[in-house]
Amino acid sequence: MISIVLVDDHHIVRQGLRALLETESDFKVVGEAANGFEALDLAAREKPDVLIVDVMMPGMNGLEVVRQVTRRKLPTRVIMLSMYSSEAYVLEALRDGASAYVLKGARAEELIKAVREVFAGRHYLSSPLSKFALNAYVVNARTLPPERHELLTTRERQVLQLAVEGATSVAIGKRLGISSRTVETHRAHMMQKLGLRTQTDLIRYAVRQGLLPPEDPL
Fold first, then answer.
1. Which listed site, 16, 43, 92, 93, has its alpha carbon 20 to 30 Å from 64?
2. Quick check: is 138 in a domain?
3. pLDDT confidence of 12, banded at 50, 70, 90?
4. Which of 94, 120, 143 is the last residue of a domain?
5. Per-residue pLDDT averaged across 157-186, rounded?
6. Which residues pair with 77 in a beta bridge?
7. pLDDT tens-digit profile of 67-91?
8. What is the pTM of this model?
């Protein structure tokens, strides 16, 4: 039996995914999460074989989830589910430790195949992404120099995500359980490491890095 946890901030999407996956007799959805924080708690508790994560979520996005799963060495393989086919998103996901990248517009059979492939220890890319380039994607993801945001601490990335969503320092502090002064310190360090000065710079950087959706999804 392949155990699966679904992570998406839209309940109706999770319902659809559950209905689809549970048509397979050897698939079992053991949990659902509406955000990245819940996802990590579930992954640590349930230790599912597969985590299916939406790339774009508020609070903690899917890329940060896969980073944390990798860092914590959880025995779970991650499938990124996204509406964006940009190479930047795919490379980032693979470099962070994802085993598969499936587009939301893909056929149901593709997601089922992705689950079986990653459970078997292989990588999988959705068919609109170049199949023959899969090895190149994986190699590039592992060999390209780290992006600037990879130099951030986990807390700094959390502050970054919430800041670009427009949360105030007080709101961020309440969400993360820290003081607003500590949030400001993390924010200052984060901005310095990224070489950014203004909120506009931060928003532009967030779009490039997939923390916010681009204006024209591919």
1. 16
2. yes
3. very high
4. 143
5. 89
6. 50
7. 899 989 999 999 999 887 777 778 7
8. 0.70
State the total domains in the chain.
2
Distance CA 213, CA 72 (A): 27
Q: With contact defined as beta carbons under 8 Å apart, do 57 and 48 qualify?
A: no
Cβ atoms of 109 and 23 closer than 8 Å? no
On the 0-12 / 13-18 / 19+ scale of CB atoms within 10 A, 28 is middle
Q: How many CA atoms lie within 13 A of 73 on its CB side?
A: 0
DSSP lists the bridge partners of residue 7 as 33, 53
Type of residue at 61? N
Instruction: Tell me the two tokens of residue 99.
Output: 């085993």
Residues 74 and 119 reside in one and the same domain = yes
* Amino acid letter, residue 68: Q
> Distance between CA atoms of 164 and 190, rounded to whole angstroms?
12
Return the higher-pLDDT residue of 140 and 79.
79
Burial 108-123 (b: 16+ CB within 10 A, else e): eebbebbbbbbbeeeb
pLDDT over 80 (residue 5): yes
Work out the end-to-end distance of the chain between its first and last CA atoms, rounded to an integer number of angstroms. 35
Could you tell me the CA-to-CA distances from 125 to 54, 102, 196, 218 in Å, in that order?
15, 6, 33, 16
Which H/E stretch holds residue 52?
Answer: strand 50-54
Could you give phi then psi for residue 132, rounded to 5 degrees?
-70, -15
CA pair distance 5, 14, nearest whole angstrom: 10
